[in-house]
């Protein structure tokens, strides 16, 4: 499954703007962007790809137990996230590393999960409402929908003031569209007309299973089936990702109900570092998508607009600096104290946690006394 | 000052009191609006508080729990009604993998004040999936609290305490007791939320149970007394955490403990009580701790439920066996 006649594309794989019936309504969003803003897209994509490569290296070197690469999906993520306002709540799955970074999560926090030091732990309220990763496939779509129901109940969207209105954007993948939770989320969202955007990154593979096993119909039509206006975009086109998301988030914030975006992209790497894509997919497919790489086309576009070589050099250095920084800091991360096992299982006091914390402390102390 | 009311009415009054005192409390569930729920526990609440605080939801348990989680992230205190015990399993993943773990995943920066109300248990002659006792699945899951009232008074107070909890609470309502009346003191709960309670004093055998079983234990104690056997009865009230002190104190006094529950016995709340009493009251016990449970079979068709479920006779048989040691 690849591009269809309905796929909205603003920037061609060759790096030129696309003028079509479908693109005309979205191009004005791009026209408003300054060169600085456009370069910011590129900076995020390039720096994050460098981070992603470094994280995979760290896994190979034994510093991480696992890595979940995002290589190839930078445009879908950066464009959509740039369309979100600070008051919007973003619910990721577990591959949205660049969005975490853009919303103020220290990348070392992401890595600490894959080093076995935490299950998340950042406070969304302190990180531009970027919520925690959810590893059970599709579960977060219901959390985002519930949050959006709350925005409605609290009158925080559809106020008539676009600067204040808030919305939810929930990220999920093609595999998750087969999960009941995703369908239930769309049922609830349509029923309660929530202010939210369902942002589907169709990267074509759920570990080793192609999207054709999940669906024989283009996935954006699923949204339509629930009564949610839906659109399919070229997810490797950062301008389409930005403009279409902005249009749909604006609609959601204004009180027009939920929206659904299917971003066609491609998982260039493995599902995780535990996986071996050579066992189940063709090089020809990889080649097809390599020619549609999100960074290459945007590089061409920016150069045509006159971006200086100094800019490209600068972001390459920034990526290298980030890579060096995480490489240095990863080994400095402390292992949590054993007593933290019990610290946050409950919010209110709990006698079993107190007993077991004490029992573990006594057990550990018994070794100290014995030496 | 007390009032006489059914447990269903006591729950209704408890929900009303919680909603009046905190505007962030929401009710969610299937048929809970104009109908008032299939057991009428939410009767009149949508009329009083409106459809933005009493939400008739789509028919999807995972959706109910999952969106309640999102609402709680936004500062609401959702109270979800699961229509029947056996219908909770479509929501099981959201309860055990998400609701129970989100505070830990957030390292304490997020509270999860969500209550899941579950009408449970047999003795109502209903069809499959409408008479089950699934509490052990949830008692096994760290991060959840479990409560089960046995009387209208406890129902009135415990539902309010559940809503006030900053942790998720599974609230198991013994549906065969919904229409039984009792005295409710609106001035004071009289006991801490997660306490177990001696509800009848005795000296020879301790019976322990929760929910609808408690009234059966009291009946058994009454019959045993006529035959000269003195039985103490403990109402667990809280299934997670379990307050063992009154149970262990009772075991130390009587030396004989029988744990009774409607749920299947294998890997059950009753098993945990039995094991803990054995650990903590070992030198006081005159007999092994016995269990009387539902059999380890699916809940049978209703005409066989009286055989499947613990009865006064099965309880007294276990009492005799305990006394024979």
Task: Describe the SSE topology.
The complex is a heterodimer of chains A (371) and B (325).
Chain A lengths: L20 H4 L2 H5 L3 H26 L13 H10 L5 E3 L5 H6 L4 H8 L24 H15 L14 E6 L6 H13 L3 E7 L2 E2 L2 E2 H4 L5 H6 L4 E5 L3 H16 L5 E6 L18 H8 L3 H11 L4 H22 L20 H20 L1
Parallel strand pairs in A: 1-2, 2-3, 3-7, 6-7
Antiparallel strand pairs in A: 4-5
Helix pairs in contact in A: 3-4, 3-13, 3-14, 4-11, 7-8
Chain B lengths: L1 E5 H15 L3 E5 L15 H5 L4 E3 L4 H13 L3 E5 L10 H8 L2 H4 L9 E6 L14 H5 L5 E3 L4 H13 L4 E6 L6 E5 L11 E4 L4 E5 L3 H14 L4 E5 L2 E3 L4 H10 L2 E8 L4 H12 L9 E5 L10 H4 L3 H13 L1
Parallel strand pairs in B: 2-3, 2-4, 4-5, 5-7, 6-7, 10-11, 10-13, 13-14
Antiparallel strand pairs in B: 1-8, 6-12, 9-11
Helix pairs in contact in B: 1-7, 3-4, 8-12
Distance between the termini of chain B: 46 Å
Q: From the alpha-carbon coordinates, what is the Rg of chain A to the nearest angstrom?
A: 22 Å
| Strand tally of chain B | 14
Number of helices of chain B: 12
> Helicity of chain A, in percent?
40-55%
What percentage of amino acids of chain B are in beta strands? Answer: 15-25%
Major β-sheet annotation of chain A? 5 strands, parallel
Keywords:
heterodimer; A: 371 residues; alpha/beta; 7 strands; 47% helix; globular; B: 325 residues; seven-stranded mixed β-sheet; five-stranded mixed β-sheet; 12 helices; 36% helix
Q: Describe it for me?
A:
Helices cover 47% and strands 8% of the residues of chain A. With 371 residues, chain A is of the alpha/beta class. Chain B is of the alpha/beta class and 325 residues long. Chain B has twelve helices and 14 strands. In chain B, helix 1 (7-21) packs parallel to helix 7. At the A-B interface, helix 7 and helix 8 of A face helix 3, helix 4 and helix 5 of B.
């Amino acid at each position: 499954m690849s591009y269809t006649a309905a796929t909205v594309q603003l920037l061609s794989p060759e790096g030129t703007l696309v003028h079509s019936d479908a693109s005309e309504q979205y191009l004005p969003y791009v026209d408003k962007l300054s060169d600085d803003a456009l370069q910011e897209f590129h900076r995020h994509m390039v720096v994050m790809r460098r981070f992603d490569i470094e994280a995979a290296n760290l896994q190979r070197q034994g510093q991480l137990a696992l890595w979940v690469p995002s290589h190839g999906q930078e445009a879908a993520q950066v464009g959509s996230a740039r369309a979100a306002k600070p008051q919007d709540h973003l619910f990721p799955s577990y591959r949205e590393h660049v969005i975490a970074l853009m919303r103020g999560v220290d990348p070392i926090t992401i890595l600490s999960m894959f080093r076995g030091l935490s299950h998340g732990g950042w406070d969304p309220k302190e990180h531009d409402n970027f919520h925690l990763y959810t590893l059970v496939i599709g579960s977060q779509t219901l959390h985002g929908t519930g949050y959006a129901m709350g925005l409605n109940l609290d009158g925080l969207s559809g106020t008539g003031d676009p600067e204040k209105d808030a919305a939810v954007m929930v990220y999920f993948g093609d595999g998750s569209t087969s999960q009941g939770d995703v369908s239930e989320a769309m049922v609830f969202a349509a029923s309660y007309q929530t202010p939210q955007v369902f942002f589907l990154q169709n990267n074509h593979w759920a570990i080793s299973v192609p999207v054709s096993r999940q669906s024989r119909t283009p996935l954006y039509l699923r949204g339509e089936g629930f009564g949610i206006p839906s659109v399919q975009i070229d997810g490797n086109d950062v301008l389409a990702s930005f403009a279409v998301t902005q249009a749909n988030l604006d609609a959601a914030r204004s009180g027009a109900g939920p929206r659904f975006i299917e971003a066609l992209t491609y998982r260039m790497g493995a599902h995780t570092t535990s996986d071996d894509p050579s066992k189940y997919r063709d090089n020809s497919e990889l080649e097809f998508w390599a020619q549609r790489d999100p960074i290459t086309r945007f590089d061409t576009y920016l150069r045509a607009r006159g971006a200086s070589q100094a800019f490209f050099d600068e972001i390459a250095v920034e990526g290298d600096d980030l890579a060096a920084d995480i490489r240095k800091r990863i080994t400095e991360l402390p292992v949590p104290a054993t007593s933290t096992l019990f610290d946050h299982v409950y919010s209110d006091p709990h006698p079993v946690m107190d007993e077991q914390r004490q029992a573990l402390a006594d057990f550990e102390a018994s070794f100290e006394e014995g030496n | 000052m007390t009032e006489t009311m059914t447990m269903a009415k006591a729950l209704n009054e408890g929900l009303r009191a919680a909603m009046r005192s905190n505007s962030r409390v929401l009710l969610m569930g299937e048929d809970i609006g104009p109908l008032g729920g299939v057991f009428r526990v939410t009767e009149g609440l949508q009329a009083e508080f409106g459809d933005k605080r009493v939400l008739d939801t789509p028919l999807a348990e995972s959706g109910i729990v999952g969106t309640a989680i999102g609402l709680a992230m936004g500062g609401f205190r959702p109270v979800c009604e699961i229509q029947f015990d056996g219908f909770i399993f479509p929501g099981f993943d959201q309860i055990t993998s998400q609701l129970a773990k989100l505070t830990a995943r957030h390292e304490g920066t997020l509270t999860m004040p969500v209550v899941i109300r579950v009408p449970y248990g047999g003795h109502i002659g209903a069809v499959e999936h409408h008479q089950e006792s699934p509490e052990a699945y949830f008692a096994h899951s760290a991060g959840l609290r479990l409560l089960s009232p046995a009387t209208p008074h406890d129902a009135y107070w415990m539902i309010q305490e559940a809503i006030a909890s900053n942790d998720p609470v599974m609230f198991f309502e013994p549906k065969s007791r919904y229409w039984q009346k009792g005295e409710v003191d609106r001035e004071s709960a009289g006991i801490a939320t997660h306490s177990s309670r001696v509800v009848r004093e005795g000296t020879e055998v301790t019976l322990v149970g929760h929910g609808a079983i408690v009234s059966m234990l009291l009946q058994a104690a009454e019959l045993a007394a006529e035959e000269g056997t003195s039985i103490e009865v403990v109402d667990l009230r809280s299934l997670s955490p379990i307050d063992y002190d009154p149970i262990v104190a009772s075991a130390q006094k009587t030396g004989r403990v029988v744990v009774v529950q409607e749920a299947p016995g294998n890997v059950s709340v009753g098993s945990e009580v039995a094991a803990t009493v054995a650990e903590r009251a070992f030198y006081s016990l005159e007999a092994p701790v016995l269990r009387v449970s539902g059999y380890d079979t699916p809940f049978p068709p209703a005409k066989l439920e009286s055989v499947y479920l613990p009865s006064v006779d099965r309880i007294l048989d276990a009492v005799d066996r305990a006394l024979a040691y």
